[in-house]
Amino acid sequence: MKTILVPTDFSKDATEAANYAAQLGKYVGASRIVLLNSFYVSIYESILPSVNFIQLSNEEICQKQESLLRRLRALKARLELLVDGSNITIDYHLSNLPLLRAIQQTIEEQEIDLVIIGSTGENAKEDSVLGRNTIGIAKTSTIPVIVCPSQTKFTPIKKVVLACDFKKVTDTIPLNELEEILNITKAELLVLNVDPHGHHLKPEAVSEVSALQQMLKGFNPQYHYTDDMDTIDSIIQFTDTQEAQLIIALPKRYSFLQGLVHNSISQRLALNSKTPVLILK
């Protein structure tokens, strides 16, 4: 977790995520934070001007780019105040690629270890490009992604919740990445199984539970079970009750992430949750 990528569109949520990244980076001993803004001008805007494409002159494009660079420099300056006293270097980059491609290219070229993004629910008042692309970023990123819900404030990570369904645990849990975050933070691990149908009590589940316990025994985790039918709400309630600072979701569980950033599924989360979600890969 030495190099952190923070895509930004300068929205409120994106700025809060950048603040979180700076404070997290200082907390875990990161060495570098890269700020990224994507300013993509489609070729169709120049050859097929229409009501769907606002045609920009070369002069207007240059002015827009300079404006974005000024905002990146200003954000860099603010974050440098947050990481004062650490060895973190903050860089910035303005890409002319579409957002998802810009993120992936930066991951590859800058050897990024972690992406941190802000998220705005679909019904939120603020129009955030990053918020609209949260699921796409989480799906296409080849490295772990932390999604910071609106109003996220950094607090030292003392407890983490691993949401797990106890199915094919050896295939679905990226142990190396999980070990890294636990070793860096020294956080207490709480494993939560949302199981309204009692799957973990069935004979065929015994081997999976045993395999998980063997995988995680070095971290002395606590195991918790709930039979709540609402998976999203039960995870959020458990996290709040335990006062955990991070939720860890497993790869390919994007339905879970969709619930976390969709107001209609959990209004309480969208309005009040301050718990970031780490999507492992």
From TrEMBL:
SUPFAM superfamilies in UniProt: Adenine nucleotide alpha hydrolases-like (SSF52402)
Coiled-coil residue windows: none
Superkingdom, natural source: Bacteria
UspA domain segment(s): 1-149
InterPro entries: Universal_stress_UspA, UspA
Positions of transmembrane segments: none
Family per record: Belongs to the universal stress protein A family.
Protein name, entry field: Nucleotide-binding universal stress UspA family protein
Organism encoding this protein: Albibacterium bauzanense
